[in-house]
Amino acid sequence: MEKTFAIIKPDAVERNLAGKILARIEEEGFKIIGIKKIFLSKNEAEGFYHVHAERPFFPDLVAYMTSGPVISLVLERENAIKKWRDLMGATNPEEAAEGTIRKLYGTNIEKNATHGSDAPETAKFEISYFFNALEIHP
Ligand code: CMP
Question: Is residue 58 one of the residues assigned to a domain?
């Protein structure tokens, strides 16, 4: 069993898509072992996305991620990191495969509905950034 970290991003929450996305996550065999709705501060969003700090899109990304509440998740299943990335589809919804979450619900490369960890070390950092041990229930 592997854990990964996911976010339902502000525009998807705002458009009442969280229920559909959560249902799909469960249908695809993930167990939701941590879940909470939070409203990130600028500092918190910058810390979360620190690997992108030098990228030109960073200020816009931080502004967007602090524009409304998000739903943060810890997901568990075998091969969870890759399976969740496959289910989300490509970062840019225009390039995402049919039926993927970003294709279905993403608006553009910034407002792309969901986030997922890209590697085991990232998943570990991202889970611990949002959740403590008492908030995760396998
Ligand atoms: P996410 O998986 O959350 O990781 C970083 C985010 O930056 C990414 O999804 C996109 O929403 C956002 N982003 C905005 N512009 C770009 C870009 N040109 N390339 C990659 N990511 C981008």
Answer: yes
Give the model confidence (pLDDT) of 57-103 as tens digits.
999 999 999 999 999 999 999 999 999 999 999 999 999 999 999 99
Given a contact cutoff of 8 angstroms between Cβ atoms, the answer to whether 71 and 35 are in contact is yes
Secondary element (H or E) of residue 83: helix 80-88
Would you say residue 136 lies in a domain?
A: no
Give the domain CATH number at 112. Answer: 3.30.70.141
Ligand 1 atom 11 nearest Cα: 110
What pLDDT shows up at residue 13?
98
Q: Which residue has the tokens 């709705």?
A: 37
- 137 assigned to active site: no
Given this model, what pLDDT does residue 137 score?
A: 97
Is the whole model's pTM more than 0.90, yes or no? yes
d(CA 90, CA 96): 4
- Do the domain assignments include residue 138? no
Please state the domain count of the chain. Answer: 1
Q: What is the mean pLDDT of residues 37-44?
A: 98
Distance 109 CA to ligand 1 centre (A): 6
Question: Containing domain of residue 27, as a range?
Answer: 2-131
